[in-house]
Write the structure tokens for this entry.
Amino acid sequence: METYATIKGQIVIPASLRRKYGIKNGTKIIVTDIGDAIVLKPVTEQYLRNLQGSLKGRGGLKVLVEERRKDKEREN
């Protein structure tokens, strides 16, 4: 599949992928630069359920705060 970016940098996610990943109007998308590619991750109920328990133990809050800081840096 391929799509094109608009002058504003917007892209269209094909309908088949929106259905497959539960992307609806207003769904938050995490955009990650992994060096040679851009990864888009929709934040859906299923995604959040999969995260449950992933930060158990010590240091989970510290990791979360650091990830939030990195997200804010990327946004600027």
User: Anything to note?
Assistant: The chain has three helices and two strands. Helices lie at 15-20, 45-51, 60-75. The mean pLDDT is 85. The radius of gyration is 15 Å.
